[in-house]
Design a protein that fits this description.
The termini are far apart. The relative contact order is 0.13. This protein folds into 2 domains: 9-103, Roll (SH3 type barrels), CATH 2.30.30; 111-144. With 145 residues, it is of the alpha+beta class. It has helices at 83-93, 95-101, 103-115, 119-144, and strands at 16-20, 29-32, 40-45, 60-63, 67-73. It is built from 4 helices and 5 strands, in the order βββββαααα. The chain is elongated, with a radius of gyration of 21 Å. A 5-stranded antiparallel β-sheet has the order 4-3-2-1-5. Residues 11-38 form the KOW domain. One of its GO terms (molecular function) is RNA binding. Pfam families: KOW, Ribosomal_L14e.
């Protein structure tokens, strides 16, 4: 029997950064602090800024089906680490900045921004798209001629 490399790259492990997909904290990122069983794990979150009175998501047990694993992992994170230790590791490794620069986070932000537009702002987007389309069409016609 030959050992084939696994197709899976992201595993549930202590220190894995996850995206919460349901509940009032949906859209926030958190870190797996410990593994309870094959259905759930306790997570800890970071504070979005030093002035925030509470973390974005309180420390709690969360089912795996409501988490999405990200490619980021905190290295050398001790098991059952508290919020303070996790926050220090997040800052030291720059994980929050890496997440904010990722295409995944930027796409989520763009979708959220688009979702919050009012009717007039959506109309302005349509006009801007028309203007851009006209400019591109003229440039292509000029280049091909």
């Amino acid at each position: 029997m030959t050992d084939q490399p696994s197709n899976f790259k992201r595993f549930v492990e202590v220190g894995r950064v996850v995206l919460l997909t349901s509940g009032p904290q949906a859209g926030h990122i958190a870190v797996i602090a410990e593994i309870i069983d094959h259905n759930r794990c306790p997570i800890r979150s970071h504070r979005p800024s030093s002035t925030a009175p509470q973390p974005a998501c309180p420390a709690q047990s969360f089912p795996y089906r409501h988490l999405t694993l990200t490619p980021f992992v905190l290295t050398k994170l001790p098991r059952a680490a508290g919020s303070g230790i996790i926050r220090k590791h997040l800052e030291k490794e720059g994980t929050i900045e890496k997440w904010n620069k990722s295409a995944w986070a930027q796409k989520r932000e763009a979708v959220e921004k688009r979702r919050k537009l009012n009717d007039f702002e959506r109309f302005c987007v349509v006009l801007a798209k028309k203007q851009r389309r006209d400019t591109v069409r003229k440039a292509v016609k000029k280049a091909s001629a």
